[in-house]
Inverse folding.
């Protein structure tokens, strides 16, 4: 019997069994990702907290969708965190819930890099690439991941189409760190704003090569 999959919006409680299952799905999906490794200094505990805080921010300020394998006990095999227009990751209202605990989990040098280098540069990147207010006015795909053994089955497309079918004329946007993923997002209707990626340095510039980032937009 071929597996059957369902897209569902997650509205459960932080720390619940399903919440933790989604965190684990993201952890496994990004376990070999250079970007995730770079921004967490390769520390397993920080990597866990990053995925936890991103999902928590998605519940508080955005929308979280999962792909569940119905024929396998509704196992979560893919998930995405979207932010609707006028909402964004790590809003001020989340300081004591999503942002604060994550920053507290960072060792001092990495925390300083996040606060003084990465987050300001990421905000400037979004403003200059998309244009003032463009990303904030669009549906923004912040985080998406599929378990390795379930890739190439159209699950990522399902997690994009769920917003495409409800966006009511609003644009959709995202950032891409892995060049091999550009082709997938092009097939989903996104276009790079610039051909060349913006280069971000890691907090330890002498040991890590940094990572590139493309801005992509879809009508």
């Amino acid at each position: 019997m071929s597996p059957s999959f369902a897209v569902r919006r997650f509205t459960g409680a932080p720390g619940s069994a399903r919440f933790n299952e989604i965190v684990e799905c993201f952890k496994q999906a990004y376990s070999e990702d250079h970007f995730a490794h770079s921004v967490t200094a390769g520390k397993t505990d920080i990597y866990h907290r990053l995925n936890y805080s991103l999902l928590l921010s998605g519940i508080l300020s955005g929308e979280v969708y999962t792909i569940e394998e119905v024929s396998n006990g509704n196992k979560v095999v893919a998930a995405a965190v979207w932010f609707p227009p006028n909402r964004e990751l790590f809003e001020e209202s989340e300081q004591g819930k999503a942002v604060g605990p994550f920053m507290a989990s960072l060792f001092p040098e990495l925390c300083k890099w996040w606060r003084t280098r990465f987050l300001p540069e990421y905000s400037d990147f979004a403003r200059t690439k998309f244009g003032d207010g463009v990303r904030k006015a669009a549906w923004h795909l912040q985080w998406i991941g599929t378990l390795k053994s379930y890739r190439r089955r159209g699950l990522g497309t399902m997690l994009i189409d769920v917003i495409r079918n409800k966006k009511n004329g609003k644009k959709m946007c995202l950032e891409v760190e892995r060049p091999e993923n550009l082709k997938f997002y092009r097939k989903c209707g996104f276009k790079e704003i610039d051909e060349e990626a913006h280069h971000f340095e890691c907090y330890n510039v002498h040991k890590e090569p940094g990572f590139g980032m493309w801005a992509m937009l879809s009508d």
